[in-house]
Design brief:
Order of helices and strands: HHEHEEEEHHHEEEEEEEE
Number of strands: 13
Structural class: alpha+beta
Largest sheet: 5 strands, antiparallel
Number of helices: 6
Shape: elongated
Strand content: 35-45%
Strand order of the largest sheet: 8-7-9-10-11
Length: 342
């Protein structure tokens, strides 16, 4: 993406050095160069990774804790939690034009930092700080490999069954201590409410860590990854990405994952770029209303409507508009739409 933004920022300079259709620059001629925008879809996919790990004493869980609801093997599972779509405008090389100012014509053409048309006799847009979306992971804190809080009798036994017995007895002692605190059946109660909460939290944490040695541990992680799509034509149920049970989000050509599909359907498709630019005219876009939807083939996970300039029609602003004194023309740099003429 950094390369993409760099190319966009240098677009105007490169066009001055090397003319390409629909530009037609003449040497020594005072020419203003501008681009119309095209939309990039920034698709943020949030996935949830659930990892299950068995406890070292899972074989003894029914004997000592009277439960058989335990994790017996390591498993990893991914699911799509949510999908959000944002848009970003970049210059359209196929819709980059030259405009020659002259008598009775616009002489103050405003473009933004990418060279996209903003209007005539209006302030240019300031450069916006780039917001790179990095992959993020939110996970539970890893458990440290601390020694079991057991006495010498169990730690020196050298038997896993004996260790499991000691861990189970420690769990029951913690439960008795907690019950004594809650029922005030202890010799000395904590001095204040904060101390009481701290002691109770410590007992709960110790019990949870010991219980995980029997029933296993489940860890949940949330990961966010961003995909970029710049459609040049309508898209119907194409594979956007795949979700693998072992690797999470994988590319569309990785058959190890289940496919997720995208459709980009404009209501009306406009004409293409003009083959020849008339330097006496200034152009804007009538962006096409476009429906974007993403799903797994059965359920639609995301659906929204956007105005996409690359699917829209190019319209010329009449030359007579600029014969008015101090005329102001404002164009939306995101969609290329004409906003106002004053």
């Amino acid at each position: 993406m950094k390369k993409l933004f760099l190319l966009s920022a240098l677009l105007v300079i490169s066009l001055m050095a090397k003319a390409q259709a629909p530009l037609n620059l003449s040497e020594g001629e005072s020419t203003l160069v501008y681009s119309l925008p095209k939309t990039v879809f920034c698709i943020e996919v949030e996935t949830e990774k659930v990892t299950q790990k068995p406890g070292v004493f899972y074989r003894y869980s029914e004997r000592y804790l009277a439960t058989n609801k335990v994790i017996t093997e390591e498993k990893t599972n991914y699911r799509v939690k949510s999908i959000q779509v944002k848009t970003r405008a970049i210059p359209d090389p196929a819709r980059t034009y030259a405009f020659v100012p002259g008598s009775g014509k616009a002489s103050k053409l405003s473009v933004n930092f990418q060279g996209i048309l903003c209007g005539v006799n209006v302030p240019s847009e300031a450069e916006k700080p780039s917001s790179q979306v990095a992959s993020s992971v939110l996970a539970d804190s890893p458990q440290t490999n601390a020694l079991l809080p057991l006495g010498e009798e169990y730690m020196m036994a050298g038997s896993q069954a004996k260790l499991a017995e000691g861990a189970a007895k420690q769990i029951y002692r913690i439960r008795e201590s907690r019950l004594g605190l809650l029922t005030a059946d202890v010799d000395k109660l904590p001095a204040d409410g904060d101390s009481f909460k701290s002691m109770l939290a410590g007992l709960n944490k110790m019990e949870a860590e010991l219980t995980e040695l029997f029933v296993g541990k489940t860890t949940t992680e949330t990961q966010t990854q961003t995909l970029y799509l710049t459609p040049s034509a309508a898209i119907s149920n194409e594979v956007l990405f795949r979700l693998s049970a072992l690797k999470g989000l994988v590319p569309a050509d990785d058959l190890s994952g289940a496919p997720y599909y995208i459709s980009v359907v404009p209501a009306t498709v406009g004409v293409g770029a003009k083959s020849k630019s008339d330097k006496n005219e200034l152009y804007y876009v009538l962006p096409a209303s476009t429906q974007l939807s993403i799903g797994d083939g059965v359920n639609t996970i995301y659906s929204n409507q956007y105005f996409v300039p690359q699917f829209g029609k190019i319209v010329a602003i009449p030359e007579s508009t600029f014969k008015q004194a101090n005329v102001k023309v404002q164009v939306d740099s995101q969609t290329g739409r004409l906003l106002s003429v004053e």
